[in-house]
């Protein structure tokens, strides 16, 4: 169609196939072509598969077990292992859970999305047929979840970052909050409950900012912060750093999951002097620099979902944790000197890394801070804290120019009261000590577990940032995503993103830490025994094979649509 494909990586098959596949996609969806230059074969593939039709590129059963080109003998061992694992899964699902799961599968679109996006798309169809991930819970006891059939599992999902204190603490927050506000009721909106005053005072002290705005989710709070930055600076660009996640709003979500091109967002590289120079050079266009401090664990990498775990290279952690602190200080200095507001998206890190969030942990004061998740004390919430000149929603010189930011349930009485209970917990001397203790325990868990993994010659390690931890793989492979299913079979509850982001809440006991460590080792041994890490493959070979698969299927699909 008149498109010239230039592969700057020489004869790398993945680079060539990625570029060709991208051109096919451009022709099919009718969008303007852009230059894609791969830093390696897998990067080309990841960009090329953005939006690919999983039904077209799904493996059949034969391909499923030999996707890395291993012998038939190893493939058969994998198949037997998968069948045994399926039996373990089926045994975990009781009658009531199975019945409820049928209803959910047929009706809940959210579940269909998360169930589809647990693993790389080529493997999804066969995986869904074999393993049904069903956790229909009715109770919690400490960090353990109890399903409707009475079975108990240890939760390391952390409820997507919400669960810092421990589930029993949030139950108490809600009970006390309802006792405070029941006379007013939960839906008296507009007038504010008197608990608002103490909440505002403490949020201003913690954030170091003068004004506060309440919202109903972290995503909504990020929307508010970026809109107000644009409104008050009269600039359009928002700077983000590659790999950071700032909610599902398409205004700040690049790549897979959002089909809207972000012409008003500038994506830069973490820990890069060149990025700082770009900010200086384009400061008159930049409304704000938006940072997720959680990237200190894996700077420059995408959200660590098992969905994109095409190979071990897809997931890595910082070699030196102190480097990210140095980077944030340099970034703050450049923003300050250039007159560009710095926004910390602390929806996840706020009140997980330290009582004062990432600002305290890294000793950096942002201009605007966004909070959410655990701050609600068990109720959905989003909060923006900032200075008056960045929080204005009207233009005094132009009365008709306003930034419309408001929400029906923002600052609802029950939400404010639950938040107040959480802030009471946060301000105690005992809690401050607990943060230190839990970080030390998580560090010890990581060190001791890694020693066991080395001793047993298992090809994975774990790493952490405070109480957030992740699983890393030490050799190339196409089946690392399978590890999440072995962990679930060992009695661990993970979020739908899998092994990339696990959490310890503050109610984990030494016995719970030990049980999780045992589960990781047992799962790894079973996965190794079943042959998923066998076969002599390189990252380049994996990248080339994935690219060829995509190219073959894309060409076939493109031809069949004509």
Features:
562 residues
Summarize the model shown:
With 562 residues, this protein is of the alpha/beta class. 45% of the residues lie in helices and 13% in strands.
Characterise the protein shown here:
There is one protein chain. Residues 1-18 and 20-56 have low confidence and may be disordered. This protein has helices spanning 13-29, 41-48, 61-65, 72-92, 95-107, 109-116, 124-130, 167-181, 195-207, 218-233, 273-281, 321-338, 357-362, 388-391, 413-426, 429-455, 483-489, 510-529, 539-561; strands at 137-141, 144-147, 152-155, 211-215, 237-241, 265-268, 286-291, 342-346, 368-372, 382-386, 394-395, 398-402, 460-465, 468-473, 492-493, 502-503. The radius of gyration is 24 Å and the shape is globular. Helices cover 45% and strands 13% of the residues. 44% of the residues are buried. With 562 residues, it is α/β, with parallel strands linked by helices. The two termini are 14 Å apart.
Strand order of the largest sheet: 4-10-9-8-7-5-6
Report the uncertain regions.
1-18, 20-56
Sum up the overall morphology in one term: globular
| Major sheet summary line | 7 strands, mixed
Number of helical elements: 19
Radius of gyration: 24 Å
How many extended strands? 16
